[in-house]
Write a structure and sequence with these properties.
The protein is mainly beta. Helices cover 11% and strands 37% of the residues. The protein folds into three domains: 166 residues, no CATH class; 78 residues, Sandwich (Immunoglobulin-like); 46 residues, no CATH class. The chain contains five helices and 19 strands. The radius of gyration is 22 Å and the shape is globular. The protein starts with a helix and ends with a strand.
């Protein structure tokens, strides 16, 4: 979520030439993501800060806003409202009553701050249901990646479902810091777990030593290697099996290690999908020049941010090292 807020801080600046901080006016940023069949989440209410100013959560958090989330009836009227209260973390608000997010229902976020009315809506995706058994193991590089077969019911309101795959390595090798030529490097400890996949060995500048250990310039146990996320997987990428189910394949780029994984398949609503896709562009990896990078997509009226929703399901798989 911190990365999300950092991206939003650039919203007023992203495509502007000759920007001067003297012209800066803070704007309100709200964010929350509702999960189907999960408790109502916290809501973040912050403000933007000048482009060159260091990000400080305590400084940008707004502690005197009125926040609520309302479940809408099918006719668009208010069915039930849960009010929020400030948490000990400035700018973070938590629900005053327990409530579970209902799939395929629409919710509205309302925030009032110093007379400003900020609002956004999201329609929660249907629940994701796995059909049959997920692939227990996949050889790295064999095909596009491990697949998960789910029901077509993940389509909502005539809109094709869109997914991301989130992965967590469960058997990563341990590493120890070593000093070589006055520089800190990281060496794998034999027998403690699986090693990095080739692409992540290159990302982290690793060398394979004679003893079968890896020696890396960067810490291989950082989150970006242990936890992976796929790009958005939409109808152009998954496979319609023709029997009411689809096969969603999680690309190997989301797997930093060999070995066992917890794999979470997340179905995104339209706002969440647009945010993730814009975030990927803002984070780099495109051929766009800085002046061409688009603003982060926002579905919030009266301010900035995103009010999105998702449904998710968890499975397990193992990434096997290819044999020669």
């Amino acid at each position: 979520m911190r990365r999300f807020l950092l991206l939003l801080l650039a919203l007023p600046l992203a495509a502007c030439d000759g920007f001067n901080d003297d012209d800066f006016t803070a704007d309100v940023v709200v964010s929350a993501f509702l999960g189907a069949n999960e408790p109502l989440p916290p809501v973040s209410v912050t403000e933007t800060s000048p482009f060159l100013e260091a990000y400080d959560p305590d400084a940008v958090g707004l502690g005197d806003a009125a926040v609520s989330v309302t479940l809408l009836a099918p006719d668009g009227s208010d069915e039930s409202t849960v009010r929020y209260q400030p948490s000990p973390n400035r700018g973070q608000y938590v629900p005053t009553d327990a409530a579970t997010v209902l799939p395929e229902r629409t919710y509205r976020l309302d925030v009032e701050f110093q007379g400003r009315q900020i609002t956004a809506t999201t329609t929660v995706p249907p629940t994701v249901e796995i059909v049959g058994d997920s692939e227990q193991s996949v050889v790295y590089g064999d095909g596009n990646g491990p697949g998960v077969r789910v029901t077509q019911s993940t389509r909502a309101g005539g809109r094709q479902a869109a997914f991301i795959g989130s992965t967590r390595a469960l058997g990563a090798s341990e590493f120890e810091e070593v000093t070589i030529d006055g520089e800190t490097r990281y060496r794998s400890i034999p027998g403690t777990g699986a090693l990095l996949t080739p692409i992540y060995q290159r990302f982290l500048d690793c060398d394979l030593e004679d003893a079968g250990t890896l020696l890396c310039d960067e810490d291989p146990l950082q989150d970006d290697a242990v936890i992976g996320t796929s790009p958005v997987i939409n109808e152009a990428s998954y496979i319609d099996l023709g029997d009411g189910t689809i096969r969603v394949e999680i690309p190997f780029i989301a797997f930093g290690y060999y070995g066992p994984y917890r794999l979470t398949l997340v179905s995104l609503d339209q706002a969440y999908q647009a945010f993730v896709q814009t975030q990927a562009v803002q984070g780099g990896g495109t051929t766009l020049s800085p002046g061409e990078i688009p603003n982060v997509t926002t579905n919030v009226e009266g301010g900035l941010g995103v009010f999105g929703s998702f449904a998710r399901v968890v499975s397990r798989t193992t990434i096997l090292e290819p044999t020669l």
